[in-house]
Each structure stands twice: as structure tokens, then as C-alpha cells.
Design a protein that fits this description.
By secondary structure, this protein is of the alpha/beta class. The protein has helices at 50-55, 57-63, 98-110, 129-136, 194-209, 243-249, 253-263, 265-268, 284-288, 320-334, 352-356, 364-375, 405-416, 421-431, 468-471, 478-490, 495-500; strands at residues 5-10, 17-23, 31-34, 67-70, 74-75, 87-91, 114-119, 148-150, 168-170, 176-179, 214-217, 271-274, 296-298, 340-342, 380-384, 502-506, 513-519, 524-530, 536-539, 544-550, 556-558, 561-564, 569-574. It contains 17 helices and 23 strands. The protein binds 1-O-alpha-D-glucopyranosyl-D-fructose and calcium ion. Calcium ion is lined by residues 41-43, 45, 47, 49.
Length: 575
């Protein structure tokens, strides 16, 4: 891995040549998120596993992705599907063995691919031995691994957990209570305790020694609490306040993050991408600038559109204009100071095509347009499993079909707000995390070719139409379109512009049109997406040299304008 050489880029704001951001080994790559439980089941128990991932490495190589992020596969009761870890040094037997993991790292390496694990260290599982020891002796050493308080004094604060209810829960068998920002089976680790931090760094280094390329870092903003704990104004009838209110009062996370970086990642030139929703204004450079805590951070700006403090039942549909402004706003904020990781979906989100395209208008052309629009932004694109074939949200006919604890909590919130069960299900179903967690659709045989047994979560019945087997090699498929985007990113003639070129919005005011320039030192690309089902005319800023990518066959250039068909997406090389 070579990095650290100084890159020369055109400054976004001044258009001047500048000695700016350092180039890094990972920036010209494409990343792919695997949700192991739903990816491929090699032994028929209905649960995807590590040998299953190894079997599909050649498929991922065909797609062209380089960096693979695995959602957690550590030993876990799976209360939150592995985001509740009971042993950081073990692979959960349902996913495979440590030998499988070592083999995966080796097999990936031999194909020129890199493995990232998920680093979940804001909390562990209540089944972790640290927590068991804390329960056995709350006054002892391990009591201080968590946030404990005496029950007799009442709740220390009125913070609401992300999955509903108070963050406080009685510590079984004791007169104490403990804090959990997420589910009660996910007690928060006390980062103020240096021993906790040392244990975490030791584990990170242990994994990096195995040859991991780095980590995706879970929920990391939560490690710093606003202390001393206090109440904030209640924002719902439950008398509690949303966790982000507390986070906005928490100061000093940088000391932890810097220490973690220096004790671990930096020594290995590891790639890290932080899951950060709530950095404070002006903090972006500290997080992912040249000397940042992480290599990169996800751009979640598009994913916050339409959210409502009352709960996910009240969320609003996203419009094309909102989507465009969120993308451009993020790009302006980051400029060339750092490198975002871009995405349209992950395991916590509904399917991007169902969420960002208007209801009832989801089609192959629209799926490709959405793919092209985020892929060509400046940043490291992440593809979530199944996204590359255009997998869609699933219909839930009963809350019993929902496995996810977050959706179940949101359902209860909707009922509490007065919705009928049918309304509540329809409302929370749209944003349910289970939309992304249905089995990967490999082919049109029983259970989408995911398992020879019974899948742990029901497959989306549309697998008969949407599956890998159908799309591989079909030139007009969504899958082949993703391949063409990845090829362009890797193409030596264009890579510098696609990866490092500055980004400038074009015709920003034109409705349902998202267009932008990517400008390199000697080259200008123009990206245009017609974000609606109807055709629209677009003025061209100059002569077109080549149409590099087009999601439709037609190209209707007339003088200085082009007639863009509904959902048409193009990448043009300009004279
Ligand atoms: O998500 C963190 C996070 O902020 C989530 O609460 C997010 O807002 C929510 O999932 C939206 O429904 C991470 C993981 O990605 C998620 O899967 C875990 O459940 C969570 O941390 C706890 O580890
Ligand atoms: Ca299995």
C-alpha cells in the first residue's frame, strides 16, 4: 500500500493549481458492503457465512470492486445482528471459523482485494464477559468498564436510546442501572476509562496484524458523552430527549479518536471509514482532513432528508431537488479538504432505488441514473450488496415478518402516536432496515439461490425477475451498468479526473435535473441525470467530444442542446 505522496489538484473555490490533499492508496478504489448473514449460505442452515463469501469472490471480482466491508461476524447473540459483540476475538460459529476468516483475507488478497471489518466499540453485548463481571461485582474493576449508577437515585438523565425507551436499564441482580445508547443488550463501554481504551486498541491491532486493510467504524460519535449527565428538554410525550441533543453537548471526542488512530490505524496505513452523523460544524477537517481521525466518512446528508423527530412513521418522501442539493451541499462542504465515502443505501437504510426514486416510477433506467449520479461524485463509492442488480424494498404484510429491532421499536412509536396497526406497518415498512437485509438474489431458483435451506429472513418475491444470473452478461442490465461505471473509474485515461477532479454544479436551478462538471488538469467531464420520467431539454456548455456513459441507447444532440429522455443519464467528455 503506497500513500502519502503529495497530489496536485485544482482547487474547487479558486480554480488554482494547488498542492492540496494527500493522495492515498484507497482513493481510486470502489468499495462494496457485504451483510454476511444475507449474502450467501454455503451449508444450508439459512444463514449466510464466510465460506459463502469466499465462493462469491470471483463474482465480486467480475463486478470490479476492490474493498470489501463485512458487517460484523464476531461472536454475538445477534440481538442487533452482530452489532452486539460478546467476544471481539472470535468469529461467530454461525458465520464460520477463524480459519475461514484467515482464508477470506488470503483469497481476497490474491485477487487484489482488501477486507474491512466492522469496528463496533461504542458498546459490546450484555453477554460479553466484561459485562458479566460487572454484574457479578459492580464495584469492582469491570463496573468501571460501563456507565453504572445507583437505582435508588432514579435515572441520571432523560436521554432516549436510538431503539426507543430510556437509555437506562436495571443491572440484573444488583441495585445498579447501566446506560445503553442502543438496545438494552448493547451496554455502552466507558471510554473515559483508559483500560477500556487499551483493550480496544489491543483488539484492533490484533486484527490488523492478520492482514485486514482497515475498518468501517460503527456509531463512533457516541463514545463521548456529555458529562456530567443531565436532562435536556423532552421532545416527545415519553419525557425523553433524542440522543443527538446529548451529542451536541458532548465535547472532546477528538482526544479519543486521535489516540485510537495513533495507537492503531496509523501504524498500518489502514483505511478507516467512520459512521458519523453528527460531527459539529467546522469539525469535518479534524475528522477526515489530511491529519484526520479517519481516512473517510460516509456522506449521510442525502439520508437525513425527510426525517422527522417524531419517528420514522412521519418521514417524508425525497424529491429530486432535495437529493441534488444534499449531494452538492456535501461536496461544497468537503471541497478538496478530504474524501467522503458515498452511498445510496446500506444495511440500516431502505433500498436506495425505492427511497430516492418517486413511488411507482422505479425502473431500470432510473436505477442506473441514481447509480451514475452518486458514483461520479467526488469520493469513494460504496455499493451495498444487491444494489448492483437494483434490488428493491420488500412488502411486509404483518409486523411478524419484521426481524429488525429498530423497525419494531419504530412500529411501537407509530402505534403510540395513534396510527392503526395497518398504517403503522405501512409507514415504518418504507424505511425499515429489513428492506436491505433480505437475502441476496443470485438466481431465479427457490429462495433466490441464497440457501438450500430456509432463509433466516424471507426473500423478496421479485427475485424471479431481479437476480444476478439474469443480469450477468446482459448488456442493458443494471449490473452491467455498474460495471461500466467502475471501468470508467479505473480507466487510466479518465481516472485522475473521475477520482480527483474538482466538482462544479451545472444548471443547478433547472428542476429535476442533476448535472455537474468534474474537472481535471486537462480534461472536463460533464455528468447529467434527468431526474424525472419525462424528457427535458438541456443546454450544453460546449462541444461534446465523447459520450463515455449513457444508460439509454439514444443520444439526441441538436445544436447546443440535448433532448434528455426520462431518467436518462450520461457522462460526457467535453472538448
Ligand atoms: O448504526 C448507528 C446509527 O446511528 C443507527 O441508529 C441508525 O440511525 C439506525 O440504524 C437507523 O435505523 C450502527 C449500525 O450501522 C447499526 O446497524 C447498529 O444497529 C447500530 O450502529 C448499533 O451498533
Ligand atoms: Ca450458513
Amino acid at each position: 500500500m503506497s500513500g502519502g505522496r503529495r497530489g496536485s489538484l485544482v482547487d474547487n473555490r479558486t480554480g488554482q493549481q494547488e498542492d492540496t490533499m494527500k493522495k492515498q492508496w484507497w482513493q481510486n478504489k470502489t468499495a462494496y458492503q457485504i451483510y454476511p448473514k444475507s449474502f450467501y449460505d454455503s451449508n444450508g442452515d439459512g444463514i449466510g457465512d464466510l465460506p459463502g463469501i469466499i465462493e462469491k469472490l470471483d463474482y465480486l471480482k467480475y463486478l470490479g470492486v476492490d474493498i470489501l466491508w463485512l458487517s460484523p461476524i464476531y461472536q454475538s447473540p445477534l440481538a442487533d445482528q452482530g452489532y452486539d459483540i460478546s467476544d471481539y476475538y472470535q468469529i461467530d460459529p454461525r458465520f464460520g471459523t477463524m480459519e475461514d476468516m484467515d482464508r477470506l483475507i488470503k483469497e481476497a488478497k490474491s485477487r487484489g482485494m482488501y477486507i474491512l471489518m466492522d469496528l463496533v466499540v461504542n458498546h459490546c453485548s450484555d453477554e460479553h464477559e466484561w459485562f458479566k463481571k460487572a454484574m457479578a461485582d459492580p464495584e469492582g474493576e469491570y463496573g468501571n468498564f460501563f456507565y453504572l449508577a445507583d437505582q435508588k437515585d432514579g435515572r441520571p438523565c432523560n436521554w432516549r436510546s436510538y431503539f426507543g425507551g430510556s437509555v437506562w436499564e436495571p443491572l440484573p441482580g444488583t441495585d445498579k442501572q447501566y446506560l445503553h445508547m442502543f438496545h438494552k443488550k448493547q451496554p455502552d463501554l466507558n471510554w473515559e476509562n483508559p483500560r477500556v481504551r487499551r483493550e480496544i486498541y489491543k483488539n484492533i491491532n490484533w486484527w490488523l496484524e492478520k492482514g485486514l486493510a482497515g475498518f468501517r467504524i460503527d456509531a463512533i460519535i457516541n463514545i463521548k458523552k456529555a458529562l456530567p449527565m443531565q436532562d435536556y428538554p423532552a421532545d416527545r410525550a415519553d419525557g425523553l430527549c433524542a440522543p443527538d441533543v446529548m451529542l451536541s453537548h458532548a465535547e472532546g471526542i477528538g482526544e479519543f479518536l486521535k489516540e485510537m488512530r495513533d495507537e492503531t490505524f496509523r501504524k498500518y496505513d489502514a483505511f478507516t471509514v467512520g459512521e458519523v452523523f453528527n460531527e459539529k460544524p467546522g469539525e469535518l477537517e479534524q475528522f477526515i482532513g489530511d491529519d484526520g481521525y479517519f481516512s473517510s466518512m460516509f456522506d449521510f446528508n442525502e439520508h437525513l432528508i425527510g426525517q422527522d423527530p417524531r419517528g420514522s412513521y412521519a418521514a417524508k418522501a425525497v424529491t429530486a431537488e432535495q437529493y441534488k442539493e444534499a449531494c452538492f451541499g456535501a461536496q461544497e462542504k468537503i471541497g478538496d479538504m478530504g474524501f467522503y465515502s458515498t452511498l445510496i443505501e446500506n444495511h440500516d437504510e431502505p433500498r436506495g432505488v425505492s427511497h430516492f426514486l418517486p413511488k411507482g416510477q422505479v425502473c431500470e433506467a432510473g436505477k442506473k441514473m441514481l447509480a451514475g449520479l452518486y458514483f461520479m461524485l467526488r469520493g469513494l463509492p460504496f455499493i451495498y450488496q444487491g444494489q448492483e442488480i437494483g434490488m428493491e424494498n420488500v412488502e411486509f404484510s404483518s409486523i411478524d415478518q419484521v426481524d429488525d429491532i429498530s423497525t419494531r421499536a419504530e412500529y411501537q412509536t407509530a402505534l403510540d402516536a395513534g396510527l392503526s396497526p395497518e398504517e403503522a406497518l405501512a409507514a415504518v415498512g418504507e424505511s425499515s432496515r429489513d428492506n436491505a437485509r433480505t437475502p441476496m438474489q443470485w438466481d431465479d431458483t427457490l429462495h433466490a439461490g441464497f440457501t438450500a435451506g430456509q432463509p433466516w429472513l424471507k426473500e423478496n418475491p421479485n427475485y424471479v425477475d431481479i437476480n444476478v444470473k439474469d443480469q450477468m452478461g446482459r448488456p442493458d442490465s443494471v449490473l452491467e451498468f455498474y460495471r461500466s461505471l467502475i471501468r470508467l473509474r479505473k480507466d487510466e485515461r479518465y481516472q485522475d479526473t473521475v477520482v480527483y477532479g474538482s466538482l462544479q454544479p451545472y444548471l443547478r436551478e433547472q428542476k429535476n435535473l442533476m448535472a455537474y462538471f468534474r474537472k481535471g488538469e486537462t480534461q472536463t467531464l460533464l455528468v447529467i441525470g434527468n431526474f424525472q420520467k419525462d424528457a427535458q431539454e438541456v443546454r450544453l456548455p460546449g462541444a461534446v467530444k465523447h459520450v463515455l456513459i449513457n444508460n439509454l441507447e439514444s443520444w439526441k444532440e441538436e445544436g447546443s442542446t440535448v433532448q434528455m429522455c426520462g431518467w436518462q443519464f450520461v457522462v460526457l467528455e467535453m472538448e
